[in-house]
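RESIDUES AND SHAPES:
===
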Amino acid sequence: MNNKIDVSKIDLEKEREKITDLPGLIEYAHTVGGALIKPEDKGKIRGQAMTAMQDQTTRQFDQIFGQMKTLLDQANQLKKRVEISERIYQSEMGFSPVIGQEYHLYTRENGSDFLSMIKPKEWGRSKKWSEYVGSVKLLSDHTWELLPDQE
């Protein structure tokens, strides 16, 4: 049994492609116990990354929209306070209102408004108004808050 290798038949250039100084960088396992290296599906990786990114940005947009809604609600409440405050300051007032106290806004038959300390049920027969607008409270910034109906 003659197992001599004919060196002249070996393609040295082709064999040189099979060796490297940096075996960790080749695309296949270079030892029997080496880790299997499989090419990744880059489309799948991108798809998962896009899904995660879209989920996260959607959550952030929802949070921002919630904050915007809160700010819009606060702005609308402030706008209502300004509107009722302007109406009260243009109405007839026979006293100096105290901060934190509850008062009642009425409209007379001639269309003029007046502020009173008397609640609608306390007028009896001497009712001097045609429309009860609502109960209000003077706030410390001198705006008026329209109170919810307590009936």
Summary: The radius of gyration is 42 Å.
